[in-house]
């Protein structure tokens, strides 16, 4: 039986959008949680947000800090590898199975970090977290023209400012509100992660992150968000010819400093 069997079409669409926004806010908060844990464990380096790591890597090169150069290079390379794997998974796996697949891989990576903790150098133990945060970005969503559920904090704040500047135009208040929600989700998740890390340590923090993933997966199975049609950059883009590929790239390109549109958009 359809979840929306007793609701009007407009109400069903609104309920579906609300679930998608709530889901995106949850995965964004997870990014904040894990990044705060990683930053405290690595004394400032991030596992989810690469802008600061890139700056630290550049300054380390000029200062000749070999340890920081190695750490920055390892984290950035791990993040890129995770993004590459997630993109391939999104091309191969049916949309209805993508969430469960990504959550399963994330859980395994969190478990790997738990197993490595205390047995290898801190940097090595946290690389699985970095990989997990990279693959999570494939679950980002676009609602009302605003991309949510991502780890691009600079782009999120830019979207918030741009939406506020055009707030009198139709739809921009919603865009600004969604950008604000994304940023607040990161802050809330980061505060929670820091609190658990400082009070109970790394292992308790990772167990908490695993519990959050399990709860999100259970919630998704009981109360799944509707799965919109795939965006062209999935299998359609893979089959497109040279001229079609250029058109599709233009259709899915994001704003300044952003990744392209996600697999789910409205």
Question: Summarize this, please?
Answer:
The chain is mostly helical.
* Low-pLDDT ranges: 1-9, 228-266
Distance between the termini: 25 Å
Strand order of the largest sheet: 2-1-3
Average pLDDT: 79
Q: SSE order, as H and E?
A: HHHHHEEHHHHHE
Largest sheet: 3 strands, mixed
Strand content: under 5%
Give a written overview of the molecule.
There is one protein chain. The protein has 266 residues and is mainly alpha-helical. The protein has one domain (18-236). 71% of the residues lie in helices and 3% in strands. It is built from 10 helices and 3 strands, in the order H-H-H-H-H-E-E-H-H-H-H-H-E. The protein has helices at 9-41, 50-63, 66-92, 95-116, 122-136, 153-165, 172-200, 202-222, 235-239, 242-252; strands at 141-143, 146-148, 264-265. It has a 3-stranded mixed β-sheet. Strand 1 (141-143) and strand 2 form a beta hairpin. The two termini are 25 Å apart. Mean pLDDT is 79; it is low at 1-9 and 228-266.
């Amino acid at each position: 039986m359809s979840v929306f069997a007793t609701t009007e079409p407009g109400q069903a669409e609104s309920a579906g959008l609300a679930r998608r926004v709530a889901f995106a806010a949850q995965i964004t908060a997870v990014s904040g949680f894990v990044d705060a844990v990683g930053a405290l464990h690595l004394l400032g380096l991030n596992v989810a947000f690469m802008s600061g790591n890139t700056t630290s890597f550049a300054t380390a090169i000029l200062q000749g800090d070999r340890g920081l150069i190695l750490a920055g290079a390892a984290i950035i390379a791990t993040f890129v590898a995770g993004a590459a794997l997630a993109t391939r998974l999104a091309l191969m796996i049916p949309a209805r199975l993508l969430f469960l697949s990504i959550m399963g891989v994330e859980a395994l990576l969190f478990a790997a970090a738990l197993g490595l903790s205390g047995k290898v150098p801190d940097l090595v133990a946290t690389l699985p977290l970095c990989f997990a945060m990279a693959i999570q970005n494939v679950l980002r969503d676009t609602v009302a023209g605003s991309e949510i559920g991502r780890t691009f904090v600079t782009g999120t704040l830019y979207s918030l400012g741009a939406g506020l500047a055009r707030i009198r135009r139709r739809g921009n208040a919603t865009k600004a509100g969604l950008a604000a929600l994304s940023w607040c989700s990161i802050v809330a998740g980061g505060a929670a992660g820091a609190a658990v890390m400082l009070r109970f340590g790394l292992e308790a923090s990772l167990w908490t992150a695993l519990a959050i993933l399990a709860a999100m997966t259970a919630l998704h199975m009981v109360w799944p968000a509707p799965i919109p049609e795939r965006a062209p950059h999935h299998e359609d883009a893979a089959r497109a010819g040279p001229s079609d590929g250029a058109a599709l790239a233009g259709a899915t390109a994001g704003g300044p400093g952003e990744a392209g549109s996600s697999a789910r958009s409205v």
